[in-house]
Amino acid sequence: MTAGAGGPGVFLVAVNGQIESGEFPGFDDLYCKFCFVYGQDWVPTAGLEEGISQITSKSDVSPTTLIWNFPIEITFKSTNPSGWPQIVVSVYGPDFFGNDVVRGYGAVHVPFTPGRHKRTIAMFVPESTSRLQKFTSWFTGRRPEFTDPKVVAQGEGREVTRVRSQGFVTISFNVVTKDIKKLGYDVSPTDMQTSCVPITEGIHKY
């Protein structure tokens, strides 16, 4: 079987859209970073794997919402749907002392079905495990954060990390796939109704 996406058994997934907005009560003047995490069989062929937005502030028009409208665009090729790409978003802003600190981490899979989609990600931040650590991090301006935000999507070691929910980020996606059905894969129509479907539920081999 030969697919037209650049070689035998290869399919393409093209993604564009934008990180539209965030809601972080009590915080303002925030910016976001994004990066994609994907399996070993996936290769980016065009676009950007990571980026950083402008700083945005709340306004009278949207007193509770931070508007970024920051574009994302990337194309992948793969031979295997396992390791379907995820986008990891990190939001940062100033603390009381003016230091940039993380205000939220979150991740979501790129939608499995072609078309337009919107996802709202529940964000979280790591927490200090003791009162002394909390006071020290507040006093020094060095809050707990991940050295590599990609661990948010990988899950390894996450079970021992203490976190708390903080804020939401909304992302819009426009997804186009090519030659995925030629390889015998079909996407479940229920994916359109869910915010994030595990790879084992969203794709079936027939």
Automatic annotation (TrEMBL):
It is found in: Cytoplasm, Cytoskeleton, Cilium basal body. InterPro entries: C2_B9-type_dom. Keywords: Cell projection, Cilium biogenesis/degradation, Cytoplasm, Cytoskeleton. It comes from the Eukaryota. GO terms for biological process: cilium assembly. One of its GO terms (cellular component) is MKS complex. Its main location: cytoplasm. PROSITE patterns: C2_B9. Component of the tectonic-like complex, a complex localized at the transition zone of primary cilia and acting as a barrier that prevents diffusion of transmembrane proteins between the cilia and plasma membranes. Required for ciliogenesis and sonic hedgehog/SHH signaling. Belongs to the B9D family. Part of the tectonic-like complex (also named B9 complex). This is B9 domain-containing protein 1.
